[in-house]
Specification:
3 domains, 5-stranded mixed β-sheet, alpha+beta, EC 2.7.13.3, membrane, two-component regulatory system
Length: about 425
């Protein structure tokens, strides 16, 4: 996220905190007040993981101070009596952010039950510091009851944050469950339809075998110069049969396209969700192949795209190539997936420590049918369509490009360049909550 965008988010959150701080109560007949602002402050820190607590706390404190001064002026109250008291709001929020920043490093902030203790300690410490300053500057007497009161306030406010976060967590889990049920229903329906299309394709396999037999039989008769008067009819029959099979496959392909492009109605996906799915599935594939490979993802920026299927296909092909290139051995292989954003385009770098590609083969690897993967035990050769499909998708659907660098026995690195405007869409246009 850019610094300007980050600053705007902090200022926006601070304004909300300042507005919430107007809900407050006084304690023990003093100028000391506790407000609801810190509840919203804690919620923002939890929700925006990239938001730095200390700058956020300082700006929030200033926003609370300014708003209270404005309210005091509009209410025609005596500003001189409360100006110092209001300034200490900045001190409270700043120390809250400092204590929170120190403690949150020691726990996983997604563990809400542990987070609540960090909030209680942060709240109590910040209030005690504010009270201490008031006692020193205003020469006020220390009242032991206020510590118990502040502890109670810290527990109540932190508990409210815990209740809100827990409620949101279970609400999100409910939404995810409902979404999974919908997707599962669609998947069952899709599978049933695909099975039907596969039936017709499998049925045509028998027809293809029959045509191959007829073609070979015609070839033999032509070679032996037998039944020359039947050659033309046999050739026409073969051509008609091929045409019928072509029509059947056209219908099957059309049906599959309709199923995958229209019926599922998947409007889009966040890039980090794509990476999460890739991370899970590719690591499962590595375990299945019993290879010792470390797969690492580094994502610079999250974005929303409606071309998630194409991105998934591109990345899956490149990662599978990387996995295939790393031999089974005791040595740990490594695959890095790095995402960068530069000069209006996304750059995806997939590198591996595999066997590499011969220099003379590099210019051919994107050609359909070309493959360097041969199983010498079985004699099977890879179809060689993966990289040609990758290049076709990137160039046709994303208006991007793919480059490759490789050193034999050292590894291979693919760079995928995709313009931002060809892959990103506004999530607000596709998500309705």
């Amino acid at each position: 996220m850019s610094n300007l965008k980050h600053l705007k988010r902090i200022i926006g959150a601070s304004i909300i905190v300042a507005l919430a701080s107007q809900i407050n109560i006084g304690i023990l007949n003093t100028d000391f007040r506790v407000s609801a602002g810190i509840i919203f402050f804690a919620l923002f820190l939890f929700h925006y993981k990239d938001m730095k607590p200390i700058p956020m706390s300082l700006i929030s404190g200033i926003a609370v101070y300014i708003l209270r001064v404005i309210v005091c002026i509009l209410g025609k109250d005596d500003l001189k009596d409360v100006i110092f008291s209001y300034q200490l709001e900045i001190l409270f929020y700043t120390f809250y952010g400092i204590v929170y920043s120190l403690l949150i490093k020691k726990i996983n902030r997604d563990r809400i039950n542990k987070l609540v203790f960090v909030l209680i300690v942060s709240d109590l410490c910040a209030n005690l510091i504010e009270i201490l300053v008031r006692i020193i500057v205003e020469d006020a007497q220390f009242n032991q009851k206020i510590i118990i009161t502040l502890l109670f306030v810290a527990i109540v406010r932190s508990s409210i944050v815990w209740l809100v976060l827990t409620g949101l967590k279970y609400y999100k889990m409910l939404l995810i469950k409902e979404e999974h049920e919908k997707r599962y229903t669609k998947l069952l329906w899709l599978t049933a339809q695909l099975k039907l299309e596969m039936y017709w394709m499998e049925k045509n396999m028998d027809n293809i075998e029959r045509i191959m037999y007829n073609s070979y039989e015609l070839f033999e008769k032509i070679s032996l110069r037998e039944n020359e008067d039947s050659w033309a009819n046999r050739a026409v029959t073969i051509a008609k049969d091929v045409h019928e099979i072509k029509k059947e496959y056209e219908l099957a392909i059309r049906g599959i396209k309709e199923l995958t492009e229209n019926k599922l109605q998947d409007e889009g996906m966040k890039f980090k969700d794509i990476i999460r799915i890739l991370d899970e599935t590719m690591k499962r594939e590595i375990r299945h192949l019993d290879k010792n490979i470390e797969l690492v993802f580094q994502v610079e920026e999250n974005f929303y795209t409606s071309k998630h299927y194409y991105l998934m296909s591109v990345f899956r092909n490149l990662i599978m190539n990387a996995i295939d290139s790393i031999p089974e051995s005791d040595k740990v292989g490594k695959i890095n997936f790095i995402h960068k954003v530069q000069e209006g385009q996304h750059i995806f770098i997939i590198s591996d420590t595999g066997c590499g590609i011969d220099y003379e083969d590099l210019e051919h690897i994107f050609s359909p049918g070309f493959s360097t993967k041969i199983n010498y035990n079985t004699g099977q050769i890879n179809r060689g369509l993966g990289l040609s499909v990758v290049q076709d998708i990137v160039e046709r659907h994303f208006e991007g490009r793919v480059t490759v660098d490789s050193i034999k026995d050292k590894g291979t690195t693919f760079h995928v360049y995709i313009p931002r405007n060809s892959v990103e869409v506004d999530s607000d246009e596709h998500i309705h909550c």
